[in-house]
Amino acid sequence: MPENGASQTGTSQDSSNSTTNQNPSDSSAANGVSSSSEQDVWSVVQERALVQALKTFPKETNQRWERVATAVPGKTVNQCKKKFALMKESFRSKKNAV
């Protein structure tokens, strides 16, 4: 029985360590110190939500980016705009390479 308790404690510590590791990157992002790589991490779900929101809210839509950001979990207007620009650039690069 003590072994089970020890392994559960180890799991809890691993979870708290990963959370702790994320906090310094958040603060460095706020300070603007080499935060671009941490801030640019997007999950597949977030990318799909962004693409779907861009289709749902065309360019003519009032407050388009605010609506897009609302549809993308955990991302701001500026993060969505930046990701869109990167996706567009990547798409164009691939298109020109073919």
UniProtKB/TrEMBL annotation:
Residues 34-84 form the Myb-like domain. Coiled coil: none annotated. It comes from the Eukaryota. GO terms for cellular component: cytosol. Residues 7-37 have a biased composition (Low complexity). Residues 1-40 are annotated as: Disordered. SMART domains: SANT (SM00717). Residues 37-92 form the SANT domain. GO terms for biological process: 'de novo' cotranslational protein folding; regulation of translational fidelity. This is Myb-like domain-containing protein. It comes from Ficus carica.
